[in-house]
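I had to read the description of the data format several times before I understood it. Each protein is reduced to its one-letter sequence and a matching series of backbone shape codes. The format is easy to grasp once an entry is in front of the reader. For illustration, here is how one protein appears when written out as sequence plus structure tokens:
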Amino acid sequence: MRQAGRYMSEYMALRKKHSLLEICRIPDLATTVTMQPVNRIEVDAAILFSDLLLPLEPMGIRFDFVAGEGPAIENPIRSAADIDALRRFDPRESLAHVLTAIGQIQRELAGRVPLIGFAGAPFTLASYAIEGGHSNNFAKTKALMYGEPEAWHKLCAFLADLISDYLSAQIDAGVDCVQVFDSWVGALNSRDYREFIMPHTKRIFDSLEGKGVPTIHFGVGTRSILGDIRDAGGDVIGADWRTPIDEAWNVIGPDRGVQGNLDPTLLLGPIERVFAAADDILDRIGGRPGHIFNLGHGILPQTPLSHVQALAHYVHRQSAR
């Protein structure tokens, strides 16, 4: 879950010289940052350093990252006409730098651990594009979704095709697994998810069948729609920290793996409490195969690196028992 980032001093040293988008766009830098946590933490996989918003720019949606505020969209979607104006593109050309980075990272990894690629899901990408950045209530997004459902479905179908192609290109470039992030889909209830989102997200996962790599489907605040997310697709379903992992797996079902689900803020507290919470998760799993121990969302910037290192080592030691 966002292994590289502001909690690592070597990453911050690079950020003093380069913007986040520069790091994403320069394969040598993306490779360096992807390798940083692999070299410092006992992780079992590398996660491609990129950003889920990268596909927006070739579509015609300009954005940048504002210090302390996150992404800011210059020309957010406000109407059906804006959706009609979006440009289709070939990710193998417009996002070639990401694919080049994948090849470089795999050469650097040399089989040490697998590499996970990723992309944003339709609701999350659409909400960023419509809201103009992060939102607490997704009012503009839902207004378009409810008020102009035909335009909404056109936008999500467009995004689903694009994401399918982008993930397929990442697989062809050499990633060993792909993850679809629907970070903000917990803003929806089950009925709305099934009507407005599921057909499009399912289309992505269906398109990846037969590609020969496992798929992970992740969202935040999804306790009430975990079963719906399972039905939309993914070999592994992510659960955030709000739901006990055994309860989440009961909803998800025995035919899927689960990923999660330590609260990332626990890493800010005493390490003994971190270990106790990890034990609780492992006890609830009970040695059942198919669990990827992970955080319930991304590592916070103020997290001590030593706590992340200690957690990874502790989970390996406890799991070996």
In short: The chain has one domain: 9-238.
